[in-house]
Amino acid sequence: MPLELYNTLSRKKEVFSPLHPPYVGMYVCGPTVYSDPHLGHARAAITFDVLFRYLKYLGYQVRYVRNITDVGHLEGDADEGEDKILKKARLEQVEPIEIAQRYTALYHKAMDALGVLRPSIEPTATGHIPQQIEMIRQILERGYAYEVNGSVYLDVECYRRDFPYGILSGRNVEELLAGSRELEGQSEKRHPWDFALWKRAEPTHLMQWDSPWGRGYPGWHIECSAMSINYLGVPFDIHGGGLDLVFPHHEAEIAQAHACFGKEAAFQARFWIHNNLVTIEGQKMSKSLGNFITVEQVFTGKHPKLSRGYPPMALRFLILQAHYRSTLDFSEEALLGAFRGYLRLMTAYQRLMEVRPYTYSSFSVEAWRERVFAALNDDLNTAAAIALFFEQTEEIIRLRRQEIYLTAEDLALYQLTWKEVLIDILGLSPPQSIEWEKWASLIGLLIQIRRDARQAKNYALADLIRDKMTSLGIKFLDFPDETLWEMYE
RNA sequence: GGCGACGUGGCCGAGCGGUUAGGCACGGGUCUGCAAAACCCUCUACGGGAGUUCGAAUCUCCCCGUCGCCUCCA
Fold this sequence. Notes:
- This protein is about 45% helix and about 15% strand.
- It is of the alpha/beta class.
- It folds into three domains: about 20-275, Rossmann fold (3-Layer(aba) Sandwich); about 280-420, Orthogonal Bundle (Isoleucyl-tRNA Synthetase, Domain 1); about 435-485, no CATH class.
- The strands form five sheets. A four-stranded parallel beta sheet has the order 4-3-9-10, with helices on both faces.
- Strand 3, helix 1 (about 40-55) and strand 4 (about 60-65) form a beta-alpha-beta unit.
- Helix 4 (about 130-140) crosses helix 8 and helix 12 packs parallel to helix 14.
- It is elongated.
- The two termini are about 40 Å apart.
- It binds one RNA strand through helix 1, helix 6, helix 8, strand 12 and strand 13.
């Protein structure tokens, strides 16, 4: 059963195969770096991290490009509104690049903690101004854009005579016009649905570059077209991003690519993949609603909706327990549930490594393994895959107690599957610290002392040790023949 | 107004015509010096109505409700 992915372009699942095997080109819209990374960023990053990991696991050589948007963009395509990064820079009285650098670093820090692998290439918009200008120049040359007072706009009316505008989002221009909130008056655009490729900069504008049309800065959509095509060519295999980017951002990207390269662009990417949003009490997180939660707040617990902090893997696990195309409703209750479930799974994983082989197998590892990969192949159904692992937790205990058995060969495959899927593909990591070995021997010593105390019926000492360890976040698990322990903080 | 989703047991969440999804929480029990853990048991749901079918959470229609996009947004 091959990997199938839901393609927004066709609105159905399609068997994935790259254009030029074994190479896969994947571009994902990264963050605009002007504020703290939040749960939405985490979900997008983790979703495509898993896809990245899985494609590599399947043997593809993946070039994964995820951009950093460090040019502030206007708050709208209208000719008004303030650049978000500039606004932040002005408020804090620092250079725009300081804002970009700071939030890029915070983004990296948060995503690293969540086990998100760095992409192969992480280009910045400001680092690719020439490529963007060149693309705009070609679009103008082909007649799909026009210049007005030092700004350049894509001429949607003209474009749609040759290409289908709205192919990704299912919009048509008439409907857009009917429902547009665009205000009449201030626009120099020919039609309300035209969008900016290049904007003229006022002399006071902090970030501006020379261009054939005078000093200015690029429009929001052009950077992704220019950078994706620069590193991956046209068309490339996979373009990803949040569901909220489908329109207008990705629709505009497709239009720019075709306006520049014509039919060769072939919808720019063959697979358009979108992760659904994170909601808080059923509503999308947004600053205007004041309900957004940053990744850091989840770690520290410093948020009104949280009573404590949670480790990064708890959040990663919560996200993975939902299918990426479903909305995920965030709450502390859900997060706590995910955290406990994650610990349970990791405990099982650690115990699995202590299982000893036998002369025959009492169940089929192969059949179970196939079900796990069938789930992953079914549009990356991580939730279903994880459920299959939970179903095995009791089997592991029975294996360890020699109530059921596996041959050395089957056991190896069984252990391999746990490692490959949970650790390598889903990117979960056991709750360990770098000081793990030291901790382990220290705790082992305490366990021994406590055991002696218990045998001597010195329960006061035994309980003192246990309670102290509990308060430090280390839980003792007394089995009849031994004591295991686990960290839960 | 247009486009698109979704409503599953206390909570999160798979599900794409016939199986107990699964996790977390709750309750009872076994075990334990006590507890935790582990194990066993209990809780068995699909917004409402009509239809198709031997059979529907899963398909069709209507209704109700929620949400996203159409401004920046992962």
